[in-house]
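Structure (tokenized):
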């Protein structure tokens, strides 16, 4: 049953399954873009599974002053981070069933020269929205509210940061599926892990 309230949450980079499962009941999502950008969160990083365990992929950002809004955070394009990202995905998922199907679209995404982190994350969300058959509409916040007292909104901001990695923080039942590496299922990874492993069946897990 669709929830008529609007979920407010920070826009993460290739978020986890639980990010999407948490938002599933809502008809609309507002991505926070006017908050002061915090360090060491999933706004500019995501986790994948490799033969050596969890690897964190980082989107480098330029130095910024305190209280700089998320919308103004610039990507540091002095490093060849796109190639490093693609190399890491290939190492982790080249043997997965659906790597060859999905990787060309990610490669196309990374051919663009993004100036702002928010801009890049919006484009990744558009891609995931399509792949996962997401039903909720989304928009960016147009003002910053420290606390939402309006009953129309449900505030999920910073429900999971890089420093708070326990899946319990999301109050989410992370479904299991076959993964490329390891005998025990690893929770909390980027939804890319699910997509490369389950392909068109991925929406069933969301």
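Design, position by position:
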């Amino acid at each position: 049953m669709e929830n008529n309230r609007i979920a407010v949450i920070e826009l993460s980079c290739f978020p986890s399954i639980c990010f999407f499962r948490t938002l599933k009941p809502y008809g609309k999502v507002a991505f926070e873009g006017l908050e002061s950008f915090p360090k060491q969160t999933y706004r500019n990083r995501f986790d994948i599974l490799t033969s050596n365990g969890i690897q964190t992929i980082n989107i480098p950002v330029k130095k910024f002053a305190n209280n700089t809004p998320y919308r103004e955070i610039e990507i540091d394009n002095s490093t060849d981070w796109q190639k490093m990202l693609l190399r890491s995905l290939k190492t982790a998922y080249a043997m997965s069933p659906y790597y060859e199907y999905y990787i060309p679209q990610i490669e196309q995404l990374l051919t663009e020269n993004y100036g702002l982190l928010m801009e890049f994350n919006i484009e990744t969300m558009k891609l995931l929205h399509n792949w996962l058959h997401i039903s909720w509409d989304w928009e960016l916040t147009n003002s910053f509210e420290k606390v939402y007292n309006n009953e129309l909104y449900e505030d999920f901001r910073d429900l999971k940061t890089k420093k708070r990695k326990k899946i319990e923080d999301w109050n989410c039942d992370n479904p299991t599926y076959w993964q490329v590496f390891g005998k025990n299922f690893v929770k909390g990874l980027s939804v890319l892990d699910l997509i490369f492993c389950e392909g068109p069946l991925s929406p069933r897990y969301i």
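Reviewer-requested clarification: The longest strand covers residues 3-10. The two ends are 15 Å apart (CA to CA).
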